Amino acid sequence: MVYTSGNEQVSTQMINQFNSLAGKKIGLCYFSDNWYKGITFPLPQCQQIRAAGAVPFIRMQNWKKDSKNLSDMFITHANITAGKADAALTTYAQAAKNFAIPLLIEYGVEINGNWFPWNQEGPNAFVSAYRHIIDIFRCVGAHNVKFALHLDLSENNIANGGGRKWYPGDQYIDCIGVSAYGEPKNGGLGFGCAGSLKNDGYNRLASISATKPLGIFEWGFGNAKDTADTLAAIPTLYPRIKIIQIWHEHVIGDKSEPYDRRINANPQNLAAYRNGIANPVYTNIYSCPGSPVRMNPLTIPVAKAHLTPVAPKDTKHTPANAAVAAGTTAPQGDTAQQSSSPIIHGAMVDANGHETASTAPINSFKTNMCAK
Q: H or E stretch including 21?
């Protein structure tokens, strides 16, 4: 996300400013689509992101106001499954199709955490509703849209297979991601993002699906060591992570959000981010299936859109150097080797305390809903 004051705004200017700070463009821009007044495709935000050369990553947020209470959901999961939002969701899906470039959508941010209302009906209701939403997109032929599941790594219920409770299944989901801040709480030291992954977090996430690409959808709290460690460790120790997007925000006046999460929160953190993200494994370039030609997402024909980037040669950052910089060892079952394909560089971009935006193949699985 690239917006820094806690409000929901997306602009090409903000994205360009972030790109300048980072020294590298983002490929994904992460932003919230709040259903405060209804279910409407966020066309203006997507247009701003597209103008900056990035792919929109839309967070569908099903609430009437910011709250964790079930009563504050815009529409319950049960009612979505029952078809009571079909008209609005079909219009939304058609607009997404007509937008005609790749999009990534998640429904139910940090679904395993109890701080949002969409958690309150439990995993079965959520899974049914999310499948129903995806079925609608498939029925209208919105094949440019991919879908993600977003969990929170700090919650114990991702352990021991708990994350699978919320998983709609490989036939529905294209990418599985987490919020992985690992920030200090209550005077503690905190693990940071790199530490959270090392402490079995990566293995727990990877156990949800044997094949789907993984992502860090939210991370960062302005700590230079964590920034350096995370960007060094991910390409070498966590081979299935294919998206990393920083939460570039400083919320002003909220005691529950004490951290300046911007990459330029301090000179040390900015230097760590610029140095780490300079590794050519981090990219905003995608390729069409079977083509060695690298393309900007704006040039990809929708019918052939495929968000697997082409692997660049890395002549500067060796696996050994990255592992030493990270101060970590490979998790069980993985070896410290450079990722075989690039990792998409994304962000939620808000630089004043407000908010702005990260991606993966839709399979041909269909249900009889399309016949309705």
A: helix 12-22
Residue numbers of the chain with a pLDDT score lower than 50: 1-7, 287-337, 351-372
Cα distance between residue 307 and residue 66, in whole Å: 32
Please give the pLDDT value at position 116.
Answer: 94
- The total number of structural domains that make up the chain: 1
Report if residue 1 sits inside a domain: no
- Per-residue model confidence (pLDDT) at position 284: 85
**Assigned token pair, 13:** 């200017």
What does each C-alpha distance from 14 to 2, 6, 219, 243, 346 come to in angstroms? 7, 14, 19, 20, 13
CA 123 to chain CA centroid, Å, is 20
In a domain, 360, yes or no: yes
Report helix, strand or coil for 274. helix
CATH code of residue 158: 3.20.20.80
Tell me the residue type at 61: Q
Positive or negative, the CA dihedral 131, 132, 134, 138 is positive
* Domain presence at residue 20: yes
pLDDT of residue 187: 55
**Residues 348, 251: Cα–Cα separation, whole Å:** 13
Q: For residue 219, how many C-alpha atoms fall within 13 Å in the half-sphere facing its CB?
A: 32
Residue 2, domain member (yes or no): no
Domain extent, residue 240, equals: 12-371
